[in-house]
Amino acid sequence: MVRFGPATAIDEKLAAIAALLEGADLAEVTVIDVRVPSAPVTLTHGSGRA
Question: Residue 5's Cα: distance from chain center in Å?
């Protein structure tokens, strides 16, 4: 799941998603949150926040 937020800063949000997809092991990730594109967050199944 991607938490994208409002349709603002779309280019920055897409760039943040691309960077996360390219540079991280996302095997355990259940949520990618780019509502604040300068500080993207990944949440895992065990994080309790998804």
Answer: 11
